[in-house]
Specification:
Blueprint lengths: L1 H15 L3 E6 L10 E4 L9 H17 L3 E2 L5 E12 L4 E6 L10 E6 L4 E12 L5 E10 L6 H16 L6
Parallel strand pairs: 2-3, 2-4
Antiparallel strand pairs: 1-8, 4-7, 5-6, 7-8
Pfam families: DUF4136 (PF13590)
InterPro entries: DUF4136 (IPR025411)
Protein name: DUF4136 domain-containing protein
Length: 172
């Protein structure tokens, strides 16, 4: 019984930190032509320097697993940008006062927000053809971000983002 409860709790916690990804790509592109990549030389991800390194390491691992190599003369460049924002809480506690029966009454209700607002991190990945200088694939991830997370938690989250973002590259 305890094992089932533990698995349920872990599943619930993991579902709260789910990475959501939207994809877009040029349907006229032959993705088999793209076998090498690199990052833009002036890459400014909007992440801390350590988080940028963690994310690039995770992207490199995913790309290598797909057989796409990092080189100095790439077929395409990757640009990564991110931003963070607070998502307002939807939950609140209502406190009300009112009258019923034959008495004439009025009512007052106050919504009190519960908890702190979640910080969301949005990371956009642009794949740009080196020769044509045209965007041919794009993915945008959104996930909950905890500012006080440990380095290991940050690394695991950024690995999850890279894995989820690149799972549909190249498109079928």
């Amino acid at each position: 019984m305890k094992g089932k409860l533990f698995l349920f709790a872990v599943g619930l916690l993991c579902s709260c930190n789910a990475v959501k990804v939207n994809y877009d790509y040029d349907r006229a592109v032959d993705f088999s032509n793209y076998t090498t990549y690199n990052y833009y030389p002036d890459l400014h991800t909007g992440l801390s320097e350590l988080d940028t390194k963690r994310l690039l390491d995770a992207v490199d691992a995913e790309m290598q697993a797909k057989g796409i190599k990092l080189t100095e003369e790439p077929d395409f460049f990757i640009n990564i940008e991110s931003n963070s924002y607070q998502q307002p809480k939807n939950s609140s506690v209502g406190v009300g006062l009112g009258g019923t029966g034959r008495q004439v009454g009025g009512g007052v209700s106050v919504g009190i927000p519960v908890g702190r607002p979640d910080v969301q991190r949005q990371i956009r990945f642009d794949f740009v053809d080196n020769e044509k200088d045209e965007l041919f694939w794009q993915a945008e991830s959104q996930s909950t971000f905890k500012e006080n997370s440990t380095p290991q938690e940050r690394e695991e989250m950024l690995k999850a983002v890279a894995k989820k973002v690149l799972e549909k590259y190249p498109p079928e």
